[in-house]
Amino acid sequence: MPFPMQIMALGYVVAALTALVLLISIRFLYVVHRSGKLLHGKSQRSYSTLIVLGSGGHTAEMLNLLSVLEKDRFAPRFYIAAATDNMSLQKARLMEDSMSDAAGVKVGKTAKYLQIYRSREVGQSYVTSVWTTLVATTHALYLMIQLRPEVILCNGPGTCIPLCAIAFLFKVLGIRWSSIFYMESIARVKRLSLSGLLLYKLRVADQFFVQWPQLQRKYPRAEYVGCLM
Amino acid sequence: MGETEDGVRPQRTVFVTVGTTCFDALVRAVGTRDFQQELSARGYTHLVIQMGRGTYTPKKSDGEDGSLVVDYFTFSSSIADYLRSASLVISHAGSGSIFETLRLGKPLIVVVNEDLMDNHQSELAEELAERKHLYCARPQTLYKTIADMDLESLLPYVPGDATPVAKIINRFLGFLDD
C-alpha cells in the first residue's frame, strides 16, 4: 500500500476505535445513571429471577425473603449455588415443591437449579483465588448467557460477584437489563461482607439493603430495612 | 416434656449445637464433669450434643447415678425438634442456629469460636447479647456463664419481617399495590 493510504487506513481504524470507546463510555454512564432508579417503561407481569444461594445462613435468609414475594411476579425462578454447597439447592427444591399459587396450582415446576464454580473457598489463598475467580467468571458468563434473568436476588455469598459483574456487563452491552437487589446478611452488623463492599462501592446493585442501623450509618447509600429473620 | 426415670424431676434438656462446623473447644467444654455437674445443680437432667464435623467425641452417660444423661450425634437433617424439646440451647455463633432458636422462644447461650479466621459471627452474637436476647460466651467462660445466668432476664426476640423489602422490590419493578 502506498504510504499515504497506510496513514489513511490507520486513521480510519483509530477513528472507529475511538467511536466505539466513546459509545461504550456513554452507554456505561447511562447504565450507572439509570441503576437504582425505578424501572421505567412498560412494567411486566412477571420477571425471570435468578436467586443466588449460599452456605451458612445465606440460603435460609434468601428463602425467608422469597416466602413473602408473590411467586407469579417472579417467574420463572432460577436457583444457583456453589458446586461445593450440597444443601442449598435441596432446600430450595423443597420449598418450591411445597408452593402452590392462589388457585392451588403447583408453581414449582418451572424452577431451575444450577451449580456454579466457586470463586474462592473459605480459607483459600488469595493468590490461587485469582485463577479460580477467572474460572468462576467464565462459568458465570456461560450460565448468564443462557439465563439472562431480569431480576437478580443475592445476599452475600461470593458466588454472586461474577454473576452480578456479568449482569452489569449485559446492561452496558444492551443484552439484558437485570435489576439487581442485594440484601446484606443479618449476620453483618458493623461491617459489610466482601461481596457487599464490592457491590456497594462499585454501585452495581440497583437496591442495596442492610438489616442493622450501624451499617446504614456507615454506608449511607444503603437502605435500612430492619431485621428480616 | 416427660418425666425422668426416677419420676421426681421433669425432664429439662440442654441442647448443644455446632451446625455444620467443627467446634471441638465447645464440645470439650460441655463434656467436662465440672460443667455437667453445674448443669445438674441448676436443674437440668439431659444434655444432648450435636457435634457436627468435630473430632472430639464426648462421653455418653445414662445418668443412672442421678447425674446428667449425656448423649451426642453428628448431624441431623433438621434440629428443629431438638430445639423445641430443649429447655436451654447452647449454640455456635451461626446466624441460622441463632435465629432458629430465638424464633422458637428458647433461652440461648451463643458460644463464639475464636479459632475461626475473620470472625464476623461475633458481631451478631454480641449485638443480640447487648439487646439482651441471649447470653454470649467463649468456650472458657461458658462454665461461668451457666453459673451466673438469669434466664428470666432475657428479653423475647420478636421475629423480623421481610415484607418491607418485598414492598420496595415490587415498587421498584412497577408493581403498584395499595
UniProtKB/TrEMBL annotation, chain A:
It is a single-pass membrane protein. Its main location: endoplasmic reticulum. GO terms for biological process: dolichol-linked oligosaccharide biosynthetic process. The keyword Repeat does not apply. GO terms for molecular function: N-acetylglucosaminyldiphosphodolichol N-acetylglucosaminyltransferase activity. It is found in: Endoplasmic reticulum membrane. Keywords: Endoplasmic reticulum, Membrane, Transferase, Transmembrane, Transmembrane helix. One of its GO terms (cellular component) is UDP-N-acetylglucosamine transferase complex. It comes from the Eukaryota. The chain crosses the membrane at residues 12-32, 126-145, 165-183. The keyword Cytoplasm does not apply. Belongs to the ALG14 family. This is UDP-N-acetylglucosamine transferase subunit ALG14. It comes from Rhodamnia argentea. The lineage of its organism: Eukaryota, Viridiplantae, Streptophyta, Embryophyta, Tracheophyta.
Automatic annotation (TrEMBL), chain B:
Signal peptide: none annotated. SUPFAM superfamilies: UDP-Glycosyltransferase/glycogen phosphorylase. Keywords: Transferase. InterPro entries: Glyco_trans_28_C (IPR007235), UDP-GlcNAc_transferase (IPR052474). Gene3D superfamilies: Glycogen Phosphorylase B. One of its GO terms (molecular function) is transferase activity. Transmembrane segments: none annotated. Residues 13-168 form the Glycosyl transferase family 28 C-terminal domain. This is UDP-N-acetylglucosamine transferase subunit ALG13 homolog isoform X2. It comes from Rhodamnia argentea. The lineage of its organism: Eukaryota, Viridiplantae, Streptophyta, Embryophyta, Tracheophyta.
